[in-house]
Every structure is written in C-alpha cells, then in structure tokens.
Automatic annotation (TrEMBL):
Database matches in SMART domains: AAA
Keyword hit for Zinc: no
Family: Belongs to the ABC transporter superfamily.
Name of the molecule in the record: ABC transporter ATP-binding protein
Alphabetical list of Pfam families matching this protein: ABC_tran
Record-linked PANTHER family: ABC TRANSPORTER, ATP-BINDING PROTEIN
Keyword presence, Protein transport: no
Residue ranges annotated for the ABC transporter domain, each copy included: 4-234
Positions of the UniProt region annotated as Disordered: 310-371
C-alpha cells in the first residue's frame, strides 16, 4: 500500500524547474524528504495537497488524485507549513479549535480534539495564552497541533524543526515519531538536515534540483557501509601504538583513516583509527594485527555510516537519475563528517548540494548532527 505516489511529476515556474519528472512511492510510516533549500520540497507538498497544479505527470495521496480530489485529500491529510503563519492575538486553544471547525468537526468534538492534541504536543498548560507571546518551539507545536486536530491519516510537515535549538529539535522529532507510533498517522517530514531524519524516519527520500536522488529505508542508508573505531595502547616496543597498527593494517590492504572531528564538531582523539569494514575478515585482521604487535585493545567499536556519508562522492552529482545510489568512498570525507587527515581538502564545488547545505549548517553550528 502507498500513501503517496507520484509519476513523472514536474512543476515548472517561468524561470525555474522546481520538480523534474519525480516518481515516488511512499509507504505508511514516517518518511523523510530531504533536500537543500530550493530542492523542491515545499513545491511537492503543495502539489500533494491539491493546492498547486503540476505542470506534468500525476500524483495520488491516499489513493486520491491531486488534480481532481484536492478537497478530499485535505479532509484526510494534515499540513504543517514551513513559515510562521499563526495569528498572534489568539490563544492556541482558540486557533486550533478554529482549524478543527474549518476541517469540519462539530463544536464539541473540535474542543475535545483540541484539548487532546494540545496535550499531545505539550502545550496544555499554556493553551490559553496568546500565541504572540510563545517561543519558536511553542509556535512550531501549535502548527503541529492544528495539523493533527482533525485526526488525519497522513500529515505533511514542512521543516518542523526550523528555528529550533538542539533541545527543541530533539523534542519536536520525538513528537513526530510519536504521531506515528501513538496514533498510527503516517508522516512525510521535510528537512534540509540529513542527520535528523536518520533518527526519526523509517524511510528517506532525497531530492535535488527537483529530481529524485535516492529513496530507500533508513537502515539501507546507514547500514550499507560501516567502519570500525579502533583504539589501542602504546607499548615499549611500539611507543606510538596507533601508528604501528595503522601501518600493519595498511600493509594488509585495509583502508584506515583518522578523523579530526566527531559528528557533533567536537575534536576526536587522534588515537582512534577508523577502519573500513569489508566483511567479517576485517575484524579478524584487526584483532590479529593488535595481538601481533603486542598492543592492548582499548576500543573496537562498530560505527554505522550516517546518511550524509552516502552523499559524499562526486557520483552523487554525476548520476542523479531515479534510483541512482552513490557509493561512499573510504578516501573522501562526508559533509560535516570527520575529515580524514590524509585526504586532500574536499572542494565545495565537488560536493553534492545537499551536502554543501549540510556542511554549511555544520559550520554555522546549526545542527551538529548533519553527519
Ligand atoms: N511560486 C513560485 N514562483 C516561482 N518560483 C518558485 C515558486 N515557488 C517555488 N519556486 C522555486 O522553485 C524551487 C523549489 O522551491 P521550494 O520552495 O519547493 O524548495 P524547498 O526544497 O522547499 O526549499 P526551502 O526549504 O528553501 O523552501 C526554488 O528554486 C524556488 O525559488
């Protein structure tokens, strides 16, 4: 069963093609739609809601045609817009009741559902205060509440973590996850931050320049490749145990890197080696090399690749066709990802746009979790 299906969907504005022959099948659950600013995420949502006609192709939401059944879609779907659109002078309760009534709920049901929904998003205590005095996080929660109040089957959330600090973002992502686990509502959530979708979504769709780059389960994204963090002690025979191990592993044809920074930007110990895992023999080779050198093994930890790493090769830009699956290269750094010391600086010109965006966020200290 699919909740959203598009086929050859295009949207052309006079000066820009916002969506370019996009074909997607999205199953129930929590799906992340990721792309840099201008990738076409909001345009897709507006088409799916039946609010903006496509230039070409077709799309269906919950089996309903977006071109002819927009009203029926909006009855069954909740929408959280990206930008601030809340009236400052009314309370959350007044606003959400109004939105419930607009969705067709009778007055008493609208009030009941409003109270339940505001409780779910953690605004119950504050519900009678005017929205104008709310923090950004509280406003985002009001927007989420109005999307949920009419008990939709699907919600489309456009950049719900925008403007939130890391704690607020985590709370919002937790709420979004619970929208599905507690109420069985399917979610399509957009973000330009790859890392945050990885924790929240069952499935991730990546678009760039209106084209589909990749659509697959989060597990496929993150488990496709893996590395091993290895830390060893020094010994009298090997005063720099890390260097000795590195030499031994590289001599055995195993790719090894050290990194300067963790995903959250904090400096990493140069004593940690990141070893590319190509299969079970890699573990044996590390163990044997450590034992052979007579070093103590402090840490040997499986480290899953993160979504941003999947987009670190030039092939991401070279083959943007549907289903294209850029393969990570052990020799190149990911966006916002620890940079192997041995690697040449990675030119932004060669980065995938989503990657550049993620890297910029990272540099700005925006998310700290882009890779
Ligand atoms: N009404 C419009 N008229 C002209 N161009 C538009 C219009 N709406 C969107 N665009 C353009 O279409 C492209 C896709 O925009 P869209 O808002 O869908 O991107 P997005 O992925 O949601 O990014 P953002 O998060 O920055 O909103 C952009 O180049 C944008 O400038």
């Amino acid at each position: 069963m699919t909740v959203i299906a598009t086929e050859g969907l295009s949207k052309r504005f006079p000066r820009v093609t916002a969506l370019d022959r996009l074909s997607l099948d999205i199953a129930p659950g929590v799906t992340g739609l990721v792309g840099a600013n201008g990738a076409g995420k909001s345009t897709l949502i507006k088409i799916l809601l039946g609010l903006s006609p496509a230039s070409e192709g077709k799309a269906a939401v919950l089996g309903l045609d977006v071109a002819s059944e927009g009203g029926a879609i909006r009855e069954r779907v909740g929408y959280m817009p990206e930008h601030d659109c809340l009236p400052p002078d009314v309370s959350a309760t007044e606003f959400v009741v109004h939105m419930a009534r607009m969705s067709g709920l009778p007055p008493s049901a609208a009030r009941e559902r409003t109270a339940d929904t505001l409780r779910h998003v953690g605004l119950y205590e504050e519900r009678y205060r005017p929205i104008g005095g709310y923090s950004t996080g509280m406003k985002q929660r009001v927007k989420l509440a109005q999307a949920l109040v009419h008990d939709p089957q699907l919600v489309l959330l456009d950049e719900p973590t925008n403007g939130l600090d890391p704690v607020g973002r985590d709370e919002m992502l937790g709420l979004i996850r619970r929208v599905h686990t507690d109420f069985g509502i399917s979610v399509l959530v957009t973000s330009h931050l790859l890392g945050e979708l990885e924790r929240t979504c069952d499935h991730v769709v990546v678009i760039d320049g209106g084209k589909l780059l990749r659509s697959s389960s989060t597990d496929d994204f993150t488990q496709a490749t893996a590395s091993l963090a290895v830390e060893v002690t020094d010994s009298d025979a090997h005063p720099d145990g890390t260097a000795a191990l590195r030499k031994a592993l590289e001599g055995a044809g195993i790719a090894v890197a050290t990194v300067e920074r963790e995903a959250d930007g904090s400096p990493t110990s140069t004593r940690v080696l990141f070893v590319e895992v190509t299969g079970d023999p890699t573990y044996d080779a590390v163990r044997d090399a450590v034992a052979g050198l007579g070093l103590g093994l402090v840490r040997m930890e499986q480290r899953r690749h993160r979504i941003a790493e999947v987009f670190r090769t030039d092939s991401a830009t070279a083959d943007p066709s549907p289903g294209a699956r850029p393969q990570p290269s052990p020799s190149q750094p990911a966006a916002g990802e620890p940079t192997p010391r041995s690697a040449a600086p990675h030119s932004p010109a060669h980065q995938h746009p989503a990657q550049q965006d993620a890297a910029r966020q990272h540099q700005e200290g925006g998310s700290g979790d882009v890779a």
